[in-house]
UniProtKB/TrEMBL annotation:
Superkingdom of this protein's organism: Bacteria
Ranges for region Disordered: 68-141
Protein name: DUF2992 domain-containing protein
Sequence ranges of Basic and acidic residues compositional bias: 104-131
UniProt-listed InterPro entries: UCP021328
Lineage: Bacteria, Bacillati, Actinomycetota, Coriobacteriia, Eggerthellales
Residue ranges with Basic residues bias: 132-141
Alphabetical list of Pfam families matching this protein: DUF2992 (PF11208)
Length: 141
């Protein structure tokens, strides 16, 4: 059984900050996350320290299926049609952007669920308090 795992760190300047895109592929699953290094360019030693200390704790949103490759012998027009269909289906962007988008959407749904539960718990608490006050008032206290 061959286990294939690869990781890359791409650092670029977006005009304001130095950004790192961390990509990880493991057994057909692909994940990516974005790290902001700041306004100054990170040195090689800082990048090495970052990889050694923080790489394992990065929030990679691993997604099944890293993409399907078209056979190299296919007709060029057919490959163009298949590429157009894939772009329409998956949207424009790199795999890293799509993986980060999927992870963002997952965190957003978790955050919505947690806030909904907190709101419902607060409503129950207020209702119980109101009921308690009504009972106390009914008793004449």
């Amino acid at each position: 059984m061959n286990v294939i795992a690869s990781s890359t760190l791409t650092v670029f300047h977006d005009g304001q900050f130095w950004i790192g895109i961390c990509e990880h592929m493991d057994e057909g699953r692909y994940g990516a996350c974005r790290i902001v290094f700041g306004a100054t360019e990170p040195t090689d030693t800082e990048l090495l320290a970052f990889v050694c200390t923080r790489w394992a704790s990065l929030p990679f949103g691993l997604v099944e299926g890293a993409g399907i490759q078209a056979p190299p012998h296919a007709n060029p027009k057919r490959r163009q049609r298949e590429a157009r269909k894939q772009v329409e289906h998956a949207g424009i962007g790199t795999k890293a952007q799509q993986a980060m988008s999927a992870a963002y959407e997952e965190r957003k749904t978790e955050r919505k669920a947690a806030s909904r539960e907190a709101r419902e718990a607060e409503a129950k608490r207020r209702f119980a308090l109101k009921q308690e006050k009504r009972k106390a008032k009914h008793r004449g206290k």
